[in-house]
Design brief:
This protein is an alpha/beta fold and 280 residues long. The protein is built from ten helices and ten strands. The protein has one domain: NADP-dependent oxidoreductase domain (TIM Barrel), CATH 3.20.20. Helices cover 40% and strands 15% of the residues. Keywords: Oxidoreductase.
Length: 280
């Protein structure tokens, strides 16, 4: 079982990825972003997740540089993820997008690079580009985001390298059990974005009762549920006390009964776009 914030899961290519990280979706460039990244590193986080479309890679890079210096650790101690945006999907354009993200972040390599959305007719070419980056040693691991089972099957049919990670919307109202089982079977690590459903679950009575029993917050219960399900999770926060609170999930364990109760909250309800029906 995951014991602390630095614990990792080993991806199918042997690369270690932290179970827990900081997401920066919708955090704009500026001091708040830089400080959030620095705070996370200071308090033991070793994984930072961004994307080209968030338009905050420069601030993330600054936060990483300052955070590493203050924490006295090296770039190799950190796991950094970014994603190629839909407009850049294609072979040459994806290769160029990767270089652009690296430049903005001020890094020499990424630990994980993902295709952000499965845009029909485009994502297979983009996957070929990711394979090239991977084979050239420019990125440690490659994966996808928001891919359903049929998208994964379509990629794998032609791929030379199987995706190592699939990052999807996942929370107690959208438990993704089928996708989770498929990924597990294929050796693809599932990762949750919006694990707290953008705060919509924080007043749920079932979750509140479980939280009270453990002397924990609802957010901590949900994040613990992720980890016990074998799902990597990247809650987003910009407030230092919340960044610390989110990561204080290694000193308690949910019972099988509680895990089942939380699974029972599923309604296949999304707060984000449907990967089978989006137009951007």
């Amino acid at each position: 079982m995951v014991k602390n914030l630095q614990d990792t899961t080993t991806l199918h290519n042997g690369v270690d990825m932290p179970w827990f990280g900081l997401g920066v979706f919708k955090v704009e460039e500026g001091p708040e972003l830089v400080n959030a990244v620095k705070s996370a590193i200071k308090h033991g986080y070793r994984s930072i997740d961004t994307a080209a479309i968030y338009q905050n890679e420069e601030g993330v890079g600054q936060g990483i540089r300052e955070g590493l210096k203050e924490a006295g650790i090296t770039r190799e101690d950190l796991f950094v993820t970014s994603k190629v945006w839909n407009a850049d999907l294609g072979y040459e354009s994806t290769l160029a997008a990767y270089e652009k993200s690296l430049t903005k972040l001020g890094l020499e390599y990424l630990d994980l690079y993902l295709i952000h959305w499965p845009v029909e007719g485009k994502y297979k070419e983009a996957w070929r580009a990711l394979e090239t980056l991977y084979k050239e040693g420019k990125v440690k691991a490659i994966g996808v985001s928001n891919f359903q089972i049929h998208h994964l099957e379509a990629v794998m049919k032609e791929a030379n390298v199987k995706p190592m990670v699939n990052q999807v919307e996942c929370h107690p109202r959208l438990t993704q059990k089928e996708l989770q089982a498929f990924c597990k079977e294929q050796g693809i690590q599932l990762e949750a974005w919006s694990p707290l459903m953008q705060g919509e679950l924080l007043d749920n009575e079932t979750l509140q009762a479980i939280a009270t029993k453990h002397g924990k917050s609802v957010a901590q219960v949900i994040l613990r549920w992720d980890l016990q399900n074998g799902i990597v999770t990247i809650p987003k926060s910009t407030k230092e006390h919340r960044i610390v609170e989110n990561s204080s999930v290694f000193d308690f364990e949910l019972t099988d009964g509680e895990m089942t109760q939380i699974d029972g909250l599923n309604q296949n309800h999304r707060v984000g776009p449907d990967p089978d029906n989006f137009d951007f």
